[in-house]
Amino acid sequence: MPKFTQTRSTVVNADSAAVHALLNDFHHWSAWSPWEKKDPELKRTFTGAEQGTGAKYAWEGNKQVGTGRMEITGSTPQRVDIDLEFIKPFKASNKTIFELTPAPSGTKLDWTMTGERNFLWNLMGKLFFDKAIAKDFDEGLASIKTLAEN
User: Fold this and answer.
1) What is the Cα 87 distance to its own chain's centre?
2) Domain boundaries 3-149, CATH class
3) pLDDT digits (tens, 9 = 90+) for 25-34
4) CA dist list (Å): 100 to 31, 42, 60, 146
5) Environment class of 68 (CB within 10 Å of its CB; exposed 0-12, middle 13-18, buried 19+)
6) Secondary structure, 3-state, 92-127
7) For a Cys staple, 39 with which of 17, 56, 62, 143, CB 3.0–4.6 Å?
8) The whole model's pTM is what?
């Protein structure tokens, strides 16, 4: 199956610890995740570790956000690795990586999602999904930037 990678980046005028704190704890995601805003009735379940490696988050929402779950599988001050599983409206297993690197004015943050798609979904992704994901990632990065800088 064809593989895909989507990466979006921003520079946050804050130290990496402030940025990392927003990523490493799923309880903070409602403040910045673009999908959290798409369903005011979103049902959230937090299990596992409170934050960092082993923290788990499941959601069930409307047709815009669907149903799925995430688990932080690795966490260092420079990186947060997440296993992401979509259940509805379609099934998919992806990897999400947040990388934090020093920048002259603070922290460069890269948000990457990788996975595999069958040939039909790969075509649909290139035509529609990749643009939508990029827009959502950009919105989320802007929210992280605002929160960390304030």
Assistant:
1) 16
2) alpha beta
3) 999 999 999 9
4) 19, 29, 29, 16
5) buried
6) EEEEEEEEEEEECCEEEEEEEEEEECCHHHHHHHHH
7) 62
8) 0.90
